[in-house]
# Entry
Amino acid sequence: MTRTTKILNLVYCLTVLLFLLDGLTSFDIKNQFLKSFVYFSFLIGTPTILLWNLFSIYTKTKRIIGTVYPTIFLFLILAVNPLIILSSSGAWRTQTILYQNGHLTFKKVEFQMQDIGTRGYNNRTVEVIYLTPLFMLTKEVPNDIDKRVEWIKVEKDVNELGLKFP
# Structure
């Protein structure tokens, strides 16, 4: 296996890892450029890596190992529909910070919106833990959040989508 093949497979594995974390867990990619890059790289990279490994790896066992995962992910893409994957590539943007944790400054309850193109916007209210400016963890907001001592009501308007209201 050449050095180029190893580097391409490593980049592909990182892309798939970020895609699966973002799509299947409470881990979210906050940065729109990075999220679009991950989703497009997953869609375009899967058949590319499959063909690359099929024709550039010469030993039979390594070729089989190098083509199994891209083949599985290609079937996954075709089963889910690439357009559905593309439509979910929009990052969630904070519109309003509703509550701030009194002990941890990186933990907040936010109202977020996601632009889904011509179909409008998705919205959600979630408890957010910011890992970095690029990544965050989200979970559902409990119903009794007003009664909890650690949460301070903030109602700070952020409007990351830049929506204009009349």
Remarks:
- Helices lie at 3-24, 32-56, 60-80, 82-87.
- The mean pLDDT is 92.
- The longest strand covers residues 121-130.
- The chain is about 45% helix and 25% strand.
